[in-house]
TrEMBL record:
<feature type="transmembrane region" description="Helical">
    <location>
        <begin position="389"/>
        <end position="411"/>
    </location>
</feature>
<feature type="transmembrane region" description="Helical">
    <location>
        <begin position="467"/>
        <end position="500"/>
    </location>
</feature>
<feature type="transmembrane region" description="Helical">
    <location>
        <begin position="294"/>
        <end position="320"/>
    </location>
</feature>
<feature type="region of interest" description="Disordered">
    <location>
        <begin position="57"/>
        <end position="77"/>
    </location>
</feature>
<dbReference type="Pfam" id="PF12704">
    <property type="entry name" value="MacB_PCD"/>
</dbReference>
<feature type="transmembrane region" description="Helical">
    <location>
        <begin position="343"/>
        <end position="369"/>
    </location>
</feature>
<feature type="transmembrane region" description="Helical">
    <location>
        <begin position="847"/>
        <end position="870"/>
    </location>
</feature>
<dbReference type="InterPro" id="IPR025857">
    <property type="entry name" value="MacB_PCD"/>
</dbReference>
<comment type="similarity">
    <text>Belongs to the ABC-4 integral membrane protein family.</text>
</comment>
<dbReference type="Pfam" id="PF02687">
    <property type="entry name" value="FtsX"/>
</dbReference>
<feature type="domain" description="ABC3 transporter permease C-terminal">
    <location>
        <begin position="761"/>
        <end position="876"/>
    </location>
</feature>
<keyword id="KW-0472">Membrane</keyword>
<feature type="domain" description="ABC3 transporter permease C-terminal">
    <location>
        <begin position="299"/>
        <end position="419"/>
    </location>
</feature>
<feature type="transmembrane region" description="Helical">
    <location>
        <begin position="757"/>
        <end position="782"/>
    </location>
</feature>
<keyword id="KW-0812">Transmembrane</keyword>
<dbReference type="InterPro" id="IPR050250">
    <property type="entry name" value="Macrolide_Exporter_MacB"/>
</dbReference>
<keyword id="KW-1003">Cell membrane</keyword>
Length: 884
C-alpha cells in the first residue's frame, strides 16, 4: 500500500512533467482505436447494405458476379425462361429476373460524370420488387419506357439532379438517353455507389444486348421456409433442368432464349442464400478494407515506437531528478524491488490515463474520418458507428503495456541507486560496463543490418531480396537506436561547429548541454530519426520509380498517344474505338486486348495469365527487346511470343509449338515466334499474339473489349491529331487521351498522391517525436534550475538563455534528422536495386525533398523549444539559485 501511496504522490507531484508523455500515449492509442472503429463502421455499413439488397435466394451465372466489371462489357446472363422454372420450386413464393451491370458510365446534359470519384461503382439495372428491400421511391415513379430513368437520391443530391433532367448512360450496346422520372432513397447507408434504374426491356437491351436475358433471378421464400431449404430445392430443380437441356440439346432443339441453345447448354448456375450472397459481396470489399486497416495500424505502431523513446526519456530524467528522494527511501528501509515497483506503478497510472483519453479521442477521430470520407464522396453515417468491446480493450492494453515496458529500464536503474551515493547527491550510478556493452551491441547490430542491406542489393530475385531488405531495415534501425549515444558526441560536435559557433558563448553552452547526457540526446534524436528515415526511404523509392518509368517510356514507347478508359480499369467502349479509328492525321491505331489463357509448353510446364492480343503495329508502338526471334513474326497467323523467364523455365525455343487454352474459347496450337527480354519495366513477362488469332479461337460473345489503344500520328500532324483525338472521345468523360508528356505527369501524380498520403500518416510519428523534444527540454530545464539561476546571476540575459535552449533543441533535432535521412536514403537505395530487377533501373535521390526535410527539422527544433525556453526565461533568479 505504501508503494501505491508513494507512486500516487509522485505522479501527481510531477503531473505537469508527465503531461506530454500522456499526450504521446493518447495520440498512439487514439490512432489505433480510431482505425478499428472506422474500419468496423465501414464493415457494418457494407454488411447492412448487402443484407438489405440480397434476396432470400439468388441464382446467377457461374461465370462471374453480376456486380463486377466484365471483360466483354456485358455481365454473364441467364435465360428468362429460368424465372418460371425457379418460381415453380417448392418453397418459393415468387421469383423475378433482375438485370445489373457495372459496365456503364452515366453523364448529365453537360457531359459530367455522375459516378463516384472515390472508386465506388456506377450500377445500372432494372427496378424490381427486391429493390424495395433497400430503397423506396421518394419522388416521381419507377421508369415505364425507354426514355425514362430513375436515380438514387444520394447521387441526385450530390450532383443537383431533379425530375425532368436528362441523363445519358454509355453502354457497350450504345447510349441510353432518358429523363429522370423518379428518385429512390436508400433505407440503409449507401457508401457512395451511383445507381440508375430502367424498365426491364430497356435494361436488357442496353446492358445485355438482348431481351429475354437476366443477370440473376431473385427468389423469395414462402413463410416458414428457410433460405437453406429453398436453396437446396432450387439447386435440385436447376440440376434437373440442366440434365434435360443436355439431353434435348443433342440435336440442338432445346428451348432457348435469344442467344440460342448453345448459350443455355453452357450455362452453369450459382445458387446462394441471402447470407452467402452478403458474405460473397463482403469478401470483395474486405481486401480494400484490410489495406486501410493494417496500413493505418502500421503507422500507429510507428507512433508507439517513437512514443517509447519519449517515455524512456521522461522516466529517466524524473528518476535522475529524484535521486536524493530515492536514496532517502532506500535509507529508511525501502528495497530495490519497492523502488522499482514505485516507478512502474507511476508508469501504469500514466498508461491508464493516456489510454483512457486516447480511447475517447479515437472514437472522435473515427467520426472525423467518416466526415472526411463523406466530404470526398464515400458516405458513412454515424448511425452505423460501431465500437466493439474489443476495440477499447485493445487500445487500453496496448497503451498500458507499451508504457510499462518503456519505463522498465528507468525503473530498474532507480532500483540500483545506492542509498549513500544518493544521500551525497551523486545521482544515478554511471555504468561504464553497460555503456561498453551497449556500444558493442549497437555496432554489431548496425554491421549486421548493413550486411543484410548489401545482400539485398546484390540479390538475384526481388522476392528473396525483399525479405532480406526487411531484415536489414529492422537490424540497422535497432542498431542506430542502440548506438545513438555513441554517435551523438561526434555528430553534435560537427553540427555545432557548423551552426552554433557563430552564436559565441551561447552557442558553446548549447553544444555542451546537448553533449551533457549523450544517452538522452540519442534517445530524443532517435524518436525523430524513425519517422524521417521512413520519409527519406519512400521519397527515394518513389522518385526512382517515376524516373525509371519515364526513362523506360522514352526508350521503349514509340506511340505518340495512349488512349485508356480511366475509371476503375474498365475496357474501352466499342464506340470510342470506332471514333478513334476515324480520326484524321493518324498513321495507325493499334488495338489491344487482354484475354485470360493457359499456356502449356511441350514439357508440360504451364502458366495461367493474361495473353496480350494486339495488331502487328504494336511492335512499332512498344519497342521490346527480344532474346531470340522476331517480335513482328509473333503477330502472324497462329503465332505468339513469351517472356524470357517463362522460356527459361519451360525450356522452349523459337519454333516450338505451345498449347494455349483460351478462357471461354477453344484450345489452340501456336508457334513460338519470339522470346522477349524481361529486363524491362513495361510489359514485363507479357505474352503476345495477334488480335485475329484470339478472334479465331474465342467466340464473339466471349471476346474481351479493347483495354487500350496506341496511336501514331502522321509526320507533322501530331498537335492536330492530339486535338482531334480529344474531340473524338469527348462524349465519354472517363476516356483519357495522353501523349507521352501527359502519361509521365499522370505517373508522377499517382506516385505523388500515394507518397503524400503516407507522409500524412507518418506525421503522427513526427508529432510524437516533437513532443519528445519538448518534454526532454522541459525536464532538462527543471533539472538545471540552479545552474540556470547561477548563469542569470552572473549576467546571462533572458534573451540569451532562451536562445541557448532553442539552439540546443535545433542541434538535437538536426542530429535526429541527419541520422534518419542518412539511414532512409540507404534503405531507399537498396530498395531501388530490387526494383531494378523489375526493370526500374534508375536511382534518383530527390535532393530538394531531402534538403527541405533537413531544414524543416531545424524549424521543428525551434518550435519544440518555444515553451521550455519561455519558462526558463521567466524563472526567478534567487529562487532558482536556492533550489537543491
Amino acid at each position: 500500500m505504501s508503494v501505491m501511496k508513494t507512486s500516487m504522490r509522485n505522479f501527481f507531484a510531477h503531473k505537469g512533467r508527465m503531461a506530454l508523455s500522456a499526450v504521446a500515449v493518447m495520440l498512439s492509442v487514439a490512432f489505433v482505436t480510431g482505425t478499428l472503429v472506422f474500419t468496423d463502421t465501414m464493415g457494418t455499413t457494407f454488411d447492412k447494405l448487402f443484407a438489405a439488397t440480397s434476396s432470400d435466394v439468388t441464382v446467377s451465372a457461374d461465370g462471374g458476379e453480376p456486380d463486377e466489371v466484365s471483360r466483354t462489357g456485358r455481365p454473364d446472363s441467364l435465360p428468362a425462361s429460368l424465372v418460371k422454372e425457379v418460381a415453380a420450386v417448392e418453397g418459393a413464393r415468387s421469383a423475378e429476373g433482375a438485370v445489373s451491370s457495372m459496365d456503364v458510365t452515366v453523364v448529365d446534359r453537360d457531359n459530367k460524370n455522375m459516378g463516384s470519384s472515390t472508386g465506388a461503382p456506377t450500377i445500372a439495372g432494372n427496378w424490381t420488387k427486391n429493390d424495395l428491400r433497400s430503397m423506396e421511391i421518394t419522388s416521381g415513379h419507377a421508369p415505364r419506357g425507354p426514355t425514362q430513368v430513375m436515380v438514387d437520391a444520394d447521387t441526385a443530391d450530390k450532383h443537383g439532379l431533379k425530375l425532368g433532367d436528362e441523363l445519358r448512360t454509355i453502354t457497350v450496346s450504345g447510349d441510353i438517353t432518358a429523363r429522370i422520372v423518379g428518385i429512390a432513397s436508400f433505407k440503409v447507408t449507401n457508401p457512395g455507389a451511383a445507381v440508375v434504374f430502367f424498365d426491364t426491356a430497356t435494361a436488357q437491351r442496353g446492358l445485355l444486348g438482348a431481351t429475354g436475358r437476366f443477370t440473376q433471378v431473385n427468389v423469395t421464400a414462402e413463410a416458414g421456409v428457410s433460405d437453406t431449404r429453398l436453396k437446396r430445392n432450387v439447386s435440385s430443380a436447376l440440376a434437373a433442368l440442366t440434365a434435360r437441356t443436355e439431353q434435348g440439346g443433342q440435336g440442338g432443339q432445346s428451348a432457348k432464349g435469344e442467344q440460342g441453345a448453345k448459350g443455355e447448354q453452357q450455362t452453369a448456375y450459382k445458387v446462394r442464400t441471402q447470407q452467402e450472397t452478403a458474405d460473397a459481396n463482403r469478401s470483395d470489399v474486405d481486401e480494400f478494407m484490410n489495406v486501410i486497416k493494417y496500413g493505418m495500424l502500421g503507422f500507429a505502431g510507428i507512433a508507439f515506437l517513437v512514443g517509447v523513446f519519449l517515455i524512456i526519456n521522461t522516466f529517466s530524467m524524473l528518476v535522475a531528478q529524484r535521486t536524493r528522494e530515492i536514496g532517502l527511501m532506500r535509507a529508511v528501509g525501502s528495497s530495490r524491488g519497492q523502488v522499482n515497483r514505485s516507478v512502474l506503478v507511476e508508469a501504469t497510472l500514466l498508461g491508464v490515463l493516456g489510454s483512457l483519453i486516447g480511447v475517447g479521442a479515437g472514437v472522435g477521430l473515427a467520426v472525423g474520418l467518416m466526415k472526411l470520407m463523406s466530404a470526398v464522396g464515400m458516405e458513412l453515417s454515424t448511425r452505423d458507428l460501431t465500437v466493439h468491446w474489443t476495440t477499447p480493450a485493445t487500445g487500453m492494453l496496448l497503451g498500458i503495456v507499451v508504457t510499462v515496458l518503456a519505463s522498465y529500464l528507468p525503473a530498474r536503474r532507480a532500483g540500483k541507486v545506492s542509498p549513500m551515493a544518493a544521500l551525497r547527491d551523486a545521482g544515478t550510478p554511471a555504468d561504464g560496463k553497460a555503456g561498453l556493452v551497449r556500444g558493442l551491441v549497437g555496432l554489431a547490430l548496425t554491421g549486421a543490418g548493413a550486411f543484410a542491406l548489401y545482400l539485398a542489393a546484390t540479390a538475384d530475385q526481388a522476392k528473396q531480396g525483399s525479405m532480406i531488405l526487411g531484415v536489414g531495415i529492422v537490424l540497422s534501425l535497432i542498431g542506430f537506436v542502440v548506438i545513438g549515444p555513441l554517435l551523438a558526441g561526434g555528430v553534435v560536435r560537427v553540427l555545432s561547429a557548423v551552426l552554433l559557433r557563430a552564436f559565441g558563448p551561447v552557442g558553446r553552452m548549447a553544444e555542451r548541454n546537448a553533449l551533457r547526457n549523450p544517452r538522452r540526446t540519442g534517445a530524443t534524436g532517435a524518436a525523430l530519426m524513425i519517422g524521417l528515415a521512413l520519409v527519406a526511404c519512400l521519397s527515394v523509392v518513389g522518385s526512382s520509380m517515376v524516373t525509371s518509368a519515364t526513362a523506360e517510356l522514352d526508350k521503349s514507347v514509340g506511340a505518340d498517344f495512349i488512349i485508356t478508359a480511366g475509371n476503375g480499369g474498365k475496357p474501352l467502349n466499342p464506340a470510342t474505338v470506332k471514333a478513334v479509328e476515324g480520326v484524321e492525321g493518324l498513321g495507325h491505331v493499334t488495338r489491344m486486348k487482354e484475354t485470360p489463357a493457359k499456356v502449356t509448353a511441350p514439357d508440360g510446364t504451364s502458366e495461367s495469365g493474361q495473353l496480350l492480343a494486339a495488331e502487328a503495329t504494336y511492335a512499332e508502338d512498344l519497342r521490346r527487346e527480344t532474346v531470340s526471334g522476331d517480335l513482328a513474326a509473333a503477330y502472324g497467323a497462329d503465332a505468339m511470343s513469351v517472356g524470357s523467364e517463362f522460356a527459361e523455365k519451360a525450356g522452349v525455343k523459337v519454333g516450338d509449338t505451345l498449347t494455349v487454352a483460351f478462357d471461354g474459347g477453344r484450345t489452340a496450337k501456336l508457334r513460338l515466334a519470339a522470346i522477349t527480354s524481361d529486363d524491362t519495366g513495361l510489359d514485363q513477362g507479357a505474352m503476345y499474339t495477334n488480335l485475329t488469332t484470339v478472334e479465331r479461337y474465342v467466340p464473339a460473345e466471349r471476346l474481351p473489349l479493347d483495354t487500350a489503344l496506341l496511336a501514331k500520328a502522321d509526320e507533322g500532324s501530331k498537335d492536330r491529331a492530339y486535338a482531334a483525338l480529344k474531340t473524338a472521345v469527348a462524349k465519354d468523360p472517363t476516356v483519357k487521351v495522353m501523349d507521352q508528356t501527359d502519361y509521365k505527369q499522370a505517373l508522377q501524380d499517382q506516385v505523388g498522391q500515394l507518397l503524400n498520403m503516407v507522409y500524412g500518416l507518418l506525421a503522427l510519428a513526427i508529432v510524437v517525436a516533437i513532443l519528445g523534444v519538448v518534454n526532454t527540454l522541459a525536464l532538462s530545464v527543471v533539472e538545471r534550475t540552479r545552474e540556470i539561476g547561477l548563469m542569470r546571476a552572473i549576467g546571462l540575459s533572458r534573451r540569451q538563455l532562451r536562445r541557448m535552449i532553442r539552439l540546443e533543441s535545433v542541434v538535437i533535432a538536426l542530429f535526429g534528422a541527419l541520422l534518419g535521412l542518412g539511414l532512409g536514403m540507404g534503405w531507399g537505395a537498396t530498395a531501388q536495386r530490387l526494383l531494378a530487377l523489375e526493370g526500374l533501373e534508375v536511382l534518383d535521390i530527390p535532393w530538394p525533398t531531402i534538403i527541405g526535410v533537413f531544414i524543416g527539422s531545424a524549424f521543428v527544433g525551434l518550435f519544440a523549444a518555444l515553451v521550455p525556453a519561455f519558462r526558463a526565461g521567466r524563472m526567478n533568479v534567487l529562487n532558482a539559485i536556492a533550489t537543491d
